[in-house]
Amino acid sequence: MPPLVVRALAAARTHGFAHSCRPEQGRLLQVLAGGAKSAIAETGTGCGVGLAWLATGARAGVRLVSVEREPVRARVAAEVEVMVGDWWRIAERAPYDLVVLDGGGVGKIPEDEPADPARLLTPGGRVVIDDFTPAAEDPPRHDGRPDLPRLHWLRHPALRTIEIPLAEDLATLVGTRRWPE
């Protein structure tokens, strides 16, 4: 693993943070970060493990911005720009070539309104939404009902989105913002 990721994992263990980015997801983020030309944003910094994967993949000169609600965790991960606050603060510095929605803006819970990719992304920019289990049916279901958050992103009119299974129990959605017609 890249040294920056190893340091972030050590910080997460020291602070008792158990929800860090898994290596399967991290490698995907690292690859996607390499395609960003100017800016990358992430919600839900945690202790900076996902952010470390993004930083190891990003080209020199690409701006990385992350937002974390918990001030202590934000300070732990502060090797790059980490804003303290709710996820929507990333809009202050939009647009981005890549946005990773991990700590808000996904719409998985009622009080979390989904992010607007047209506002956050450059045309051709990508959004990543993780922490799904691989879908076994169409339409995808969660707890016996249609998986509305997943369907929101898979059918979003501003995006072309695909589900990528990363492990037996882990899938990620990656969407590319359509170009204006």
Quick overview of this protein structure:
It comes from Streptomyces cylindrosporus. The chain is an alpha/beta fold.
Write up this protein.
This protein is an alpha/beta fold and 181 residues long. Helices cover 27% and strands 30% of the residues. It is built from six helices and nine strands, in the order H-H-E-H-E-H-E-E-H-E-E-E-H-E-E. The strands form two sheets. It has a seven-stranded mixed beta sheet with strand order 3-2-1-4-5-9-8, with helices on both faces. Strand 2, helix 4 and strand 3 form a beta-alpha-beta unit. It is globular, with a radius of gyration of 15 Å. The model has no long low-confidence stretch (mean pLDDT 92).
Number of helices: 6
Structural class: alpha/beta
Order of helices and strands: HHEHEHEEHEEEHEE
CATH architecture: 3-Layer(aba) Sandwich
The largest sheet, given as strand count, sense and whether it forms a barrel, is: 7 strands, mixed
CATH fold group: Rossmann fold
Number of strands: 9
Mean pLDDT: 92
Question: What does the overall shape look like?
Answer: globular
Our count of domains comes out at: 1
Query: Separation of termini?
Result: 42 Å
Radius of gyration of CA atoms, rounded to a whole number: 15 Å
| DSSP helix fraction | 25-40%
- Parts with pLDDT < 50 across at least 5 consecutive residues: none
Beta percentage is: 25-35%
Q: Which strands sit side by side, in order, in the main sheet?
A: 3-2-1-4-5-9-8
- The CATH C-level name is Alpha Beta
